From TrEMBL:
UniProt keyword Isomerase present: yes
One function term, GO molecular function aspect: isomerase activity
Record key words, sorted: Isomerase
InterPro entries found in the cross-reference section: IolE/XylAMocC-like (IPR050312), Xyl_isomerase-like_sf (IPR036237)
Keyword Isomerase: yes
Protein's recorded name: Sugar phosphate isomerase
């Protein structure tokens, strides 16, 4: 299996670069050798221009992060963007602070289920990105991500596990992802250095291969259980971001 068929880059990593120079940024991403990216907003660019630049540099969108409130108030807009970028795998990127309570989580689940009921017949997959509060929050006796992704009337919300946040919460990411066999088409690959506060991302987030996450085991499991893409995301780095991504990519490629 060629690594080019399985590794993607989350463009949130280069959000600042996209704001300054869209085409130059996507050109550099393409020059890393990757074929697949995940979108996280337009970063001040016209969506048509973003779609055109992605085509120019032969980058295919395999997932889209969508702002939380849009699932409630802009489903038609989400559909238009999905067709523009030829991508029907869409994730609620982050449950906003005002909804980070039991009633908000219950509402979020119903909103995502409603969206899935409407969009699944069109071939869409609706999911939730896994942040840190998953592991400190119980809803109806279930850990938050488990609660959100539990099926309702045959409809299940997909999970997007994030190895950094899982690790930062003192949970083993290799064991955690196993609960999502067939239900996690994309995993966010981010390394973690223990010994710092959970909020100290400047120190505990590191390039792949420099921390403690067992990416080899995750990939071995994922290849047998429906993971389609392993998506590198680097929220921040002490390195130049393209150097950071190149370092993580080199480490990850060794497992294919």
């Amino acid at each position: 299996m060629a690594w080019q068929d399985k590794i993607a880059i989350q463009l949130y990593s280069v959000r600042k670069e996209m704001e300054r120079d869209l085409e130059g940024t996507l050109k550099k991403i393409s020059e890393l050798g990757v074929r697949y990216v995940q979108l996280d907003g337009m970063r001040g660019n016209d969506p048509e221009r973003v779609a055109s630049a992605l085509r120019k540099y032969n980058l295919k969108v395999i997932g889209m992060h969508i702002k939380h409130e849009r699932f409630s108030n802009d489903l038609d807009g989400i559909i238009r963007e999905a067709y523009l970028f030829d991508c029907k795998t869409i994730y609620d990127k982050y449950i906003e602070e005002e909804d980070q309570h039991t009633a908000g989580y219950v509402k979020t689940k119903q909103t995502l289920i409603d969206a899935a009921l409407k969009l699944a017949p069109l071939g869409f997959r609706i999911g939730l990105h896994n942040p840190e509060y998953d592991f400190t929050t119980l809803v109806e006796g279930r850990m938050l991500m488990d609660y959100i992704t539990d099926p309702v009337s045959g409809i299940s919300i997909y999970a997007e596990p994030d190895t950094y946040w899982i690790s930062a919460s003192n949970v083993d990411p290799v064991e955690y992802v196993k609960r999502y066999s067939g239900r996690a088409p994309i995993i966010h690959m981010k390394d973690f250095l223990p010994g710092f506060e959970i909020t100290d991302m400047a120190h505990n987030l590191t390039e792949i291969g420099s921390g403690t996450v067992d990416f080899k085991a995750i990939i071995e499991w994922g290849n047998e259980h429906g993971v389609e893409y392993y998506c590198i995301e680097q929220d921040q780095s002490k390195l130049d971001m393209f150097d950071s991504l190149a370092q993580s990519l080199t480490a990850l490629k060794a497992y294919f």
